[in-house]
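It is worth pausing here to work through a concrete case rather than discussing structure prediction in the abstract. The textbook approach is simple: state the sequence, then state the predicted structure, then interpret. We follow exactly that order.
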Amino acid sequence: MIDDWDKLLSTIMPMLTAARDNRQEQFRQIFRKDYPPLSVKFGETAEKYTHAIQSNVMLDRANESIAQNRIILLSALLAGILTLILTDRYLVKFLTTPLNYIKNHLETLSAGKLHVEINDFGRNCAGQLIPYIRSMQNSLCGTVSAIHETSSSLYSSTGRIREGNEQLSARTDQQAAAIQETSASMEELISTVKNNAENVQQARILSEETQKMAKKGGELTADVVETMESISESSRKIADITGVINSISFQTNILALNAAVEAARAGEQGRGFAVVASEVRSLAQRSAQAAKEIEALINESVSRVQAGSELVTTAGNAMDTIITSVTHVNALMGEISVASDEQSRGIAQIGLAMNEMDGVTQQNAVLVQEASTSAEDLEMEAQQLAKIIAVFDLGGEVIKAAKHDNRPLLNKSPKVTPSQPVGGSNNNWETF
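Step two, the predicted structure:
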């Protein structure tokens, strides 16, 4: 049992030395690997020794060594108590206190105070977490700063988007109203063009009828010209006959005059013949006078017939010109009718396009209204995000830098205000 106690004591002393020298790994290694089996073996040996001294054979030897065993047990008890005290102080000093400090710092971070700095306190298990916590805090601070900047920019951008969508919605409504008015005007224009096409068609029919009537008038004028020429020829023949009658009257007058002269020479025997000759002369003179009057009338009629023939010829030429003009007008009316039909079809297609544009514009108005509503919702969400981000306290310098730099701070480490650690410094190891 004494050998087991010596082995146990030789294990406890290096543990005390490692704890005094702040050699944590060595202390943990001895405490976890070497100390437990020796302690268990010493307990078993002590139990066997207790049973042995209870027998009569070992009673005398037990009485002799009881004092020594009492001292050994008291020493072992004191060593165990000392080990427990040292272990408790170690756990409190290097685990409980640092973990409480880390817990308090994390509570501070969870409250939104990201500017509070965490300090190092050794390289133990808890102390090794400090760089990771500091890196996490810096990343969180940069992320919150970037989110703050992004939310502010997003809020202003969504405001501008909402205003732009409202203006676009108003303009789209105006455009829809204008397109509706244009569509109504196009319908009126289509009706007017149709009426014009119908009027042109009627005018074309009237022009064709006028062309037919002009052709008939031309034919009648040609007949009149031919008739006037026949009348003129007949008048010339009558004038010739009248000239013959006038010549006969003149010769009759001469013969009557000669007969009167011969009757005067005959005296009383020729008086009756003289009277007859005088009557014949008088009739010849009146026949000659009538023939002259008829000739004058015939000449006047011939001149008038010639003038009428010329007028009828002029009228015939005018009718030919009218027929040509009416034919040209009829052709133009046909072209106008075709153009009016094409114009009517084109305007009808334009009307269909305007109706389609009206439908598309109405759909655009609905889409713009939905976009405006979405922009308002996004603006409200950005405002809510800004309120949420405002809970985090990044410190005055970080906020100022974010406003001045106007860029995300994901890659920057925030400037934090130093604070005193909750625990002591590393020099306290020397007092351990």
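Step three, interpretation. The CA atoms of residues 53 and 59 lie 5 Å apart. The mean pLDDT is 73.
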